[in-house]
Amino acid sequence: MAIQPIDLQVLFSRLNQLGKEQADQRDSQIHTQVILNAEGVKRAQAEEHSVTGAPETEGGNVRQVKDENRRHQREKARGDGEKKEEENGDAGTPEVITESYLGKKINITG
Prior knowledge:
mainly alpha
């Protein structure tokens, strides 16, 4: 199929418009990438400056869970300690360890 002269006239008259449309299409892709990059930078900066909250538990209180874990660990330690005391024969007197250097000097220079 050959191009007729009338087709050339239409093509040449629309050449300027087609060139603008193609340039806009190329620029829109670049513009979209620039916008997405800018949003990514803003999101990263917001995450960098934001404070994340503690995860919610079923009870709604993280401290309660931590306290339960500590209590469970203490009970384990007491159970192990009681077994050792029974083996040693010391039933009523807990062993108190004090460090001689603790609490003697106070640093006020900061």
